Amino acid sequence: MCLLLGATGVGKTLLLKRLQNILLKVGTNLTDLTLRKKRVTVRELGGCMGPIWPSYFVDCYSVIFMVDSANITQISSSCVQLLSVLAAEPLQTASVLVLFNKRDLPCTMTLGEMKSLFRMDDIIASAPQSITTLELSARSGEGLQDVLNWLDSLQPC
């Protein structure tokens, strides 16, 4: 199971729909993706469901945590949510992809700016998880192949 997490409006549903269209699969917030090497079930959990995210952490071997790169007002709360996810005991061995979305918008911060605001170097250095950061435009599809490659490269715990 791979959890797709993030605040409301960051583009989680659009990302899932784009991945489904690429792989010709249909589903709702629980989606099976058939990749080159394996089949991955991705469950999308919205930001308003944050308080119950931990109930889905069991049997989860990877997390995609999406951030809206164009919404400066959401940065601090997204960082707090990410730190909470990384601190969860059941996710200590999970692979984590921090996905900065909406890079196609003119007001979007650069990947370097986002990583600096999140203090990603410090998070990566102190977290037990393997953490990857990528940027994406779920709307245009730019960066989708990188997400698929990351999913395909995962090893179950």
UniProtKB/TrEMBL annotation:
Identify the residues that bind Mg(2+).
13
Q: What is this protein called?
A: ADP-ribosylation factor-like 16
Cite the PROSITE patterns for this sequence.
ARF
InterPro entries of this UniProt entry? P-loop_NTPase, Small_GTPase_ARF/SAR
**What GO molecular functions are on record for this protein?**
GTP binding; GTPase activity; metal ion binding
Recorded source organism is Astyanax mexicanus (Blind cave fish)
Q: Which UniProt keywords apply?
A: GTP-binding, Magnesium, Metal-binding, Nucleotide-binding
Q: Where does GTP bind?
A: 6-13, 47, 101-104
